[in-house]
Amino acid sequence: MRILLANPRGFCAGVNMAIECLDEVIRMFGPHVFVYHEIVHNKYVVDRFTRQGVTFVDSVEEVPEGSVLLYSAHGVSPVIRQAARERKLQTIDATCPLVTKVHLEAIKYAREKYNIILIGHEGHDEVIGTMGEAPESITLVETDEDVASLPFTAEDPLVYLTQTTLSVEEAGRVVAALKARYPHIKSPPKEDICYATTNRQEAVAQLAAEADLVIVLGSQNSSNSRRLMELGSGGNKPSYLVDGAHELNHAWFENVECVLITAGASAPEVVVQDCIEYLRTNFGAKVDERTIREEHVSFPLPKELRALQKLRIE
Which positions in this protein are listed as binding dimethylallyl diphosphate (predicted)? Predict the structure, then answer.
């Protein structure tokens, strides 16, 4: 058996920053800190921090007054920030800068009186945060079919934004439908879909043809990981999204000569290596790592955390 190991895969710059941020907060304040929603959408990562003593909450009201609260990589709405201030929480914002970019675009276009069409998945943490920046101005669409039911006219000022972790192909279909119905619609000055999401999808799209089966490391609630699995399935290859080697089924690999392995942007490399070891042990698999595109992006820690670090040093 041959393992076709996709590169790039796994952690993106935003996830790296968020996890490093929480590690540093634990070092500075101890493990009994709080995070609004999952720091990233990955069970392995969340379980690791939970074992250390971190508490993940879905409501600011769950956080005792005066506590340390970290905002997750997916971003939060102004309502959440205000609720945190009212509870006198010490907040640290680990929002991915690429998500912050979309938030700022939403604020800008709302001030300019545009009707904002947000392409994304209802209920996703990132979408909730973005819509919270300008709830009266934003309309959510998920598919190209949704475009037909939009209430806007050809005279209305329109702009579209996108969730950062969408499938490029999926978003492209919606954008095409929007432009067909509203030729005057504005687009964001720079692509909203995250570079890492795009690169990981490109790697799967290029490599899947060589494989008999696709394994994506990532959690079920990770939007970008699900898109990778769907991309494999769309190429008529059996594709599975798993959190780790413990979820692999021996029967999947019978009579399989080549397995493509990749990982979503919130999945750590350790779970990839565990799966490789499983296939080596059970099937004598050999690894062929294939690099489709180099990545050299990194993000600094949040400015409020860097300021606290400086105070501690002084």
Answer: 41, 74, 124, 222-224, 266
DSSP 8-class letter at 41 = S
Q: Is 242 exposed, middle or buried (0-12, 13-18, 19+ CB in 10 A)?
A: buried
Q: DSSP characters for 133-152?
A: HSTTTEEEE-SGGGGGG---
96: annotated binding-site residue?
Answer: yes
How does pLDDT run across 120-132, given as a tens digit for each residue?
999 999 999 999 9
Strand partners, 213: 259
Tokens of 247: 């979820």
307 pLDDT more than 70: yes
Class of domain 13-96+299-313: alpha beta
Residue 57 DSSP label: E
- Residues tagged active-site: 126
Task: Using DSSP, state whether 91 is helix, strand or coil.
Answer: strand
Q: What is the pLDDT of residue 154?
A: 87
Task: Tell me: pLDDT of 72 over 60.
Answer: yes
- Residue span(s) of the chain under CATH 3.40.1010.20 come to 2-11+195-291, 98-181
Correct CATH for 98-181 of 3.40.50.300, 3.40.50.1980, 3.10.20.10, 3.40.1010.20: 3.40.1010.20
What per-residue confidence (pLDDT) applies to 314? 55
* φ and ψ at residue 129, rounded to 5 degrees: -65, -45
What are phi and psi for residue 2, nearest 5 degrees?
Answer: -115, 135
User: Is 12 annotated as ligand-binding?
Assistant: yes
Three-state DSSP state, 115: strand
What local confidence, expressed as pLDDT, does residue 64 receive? 97
Residue 194 is labelled as binding a ligand: yes
Q: Mean pLDDT for the chain?
A: 96
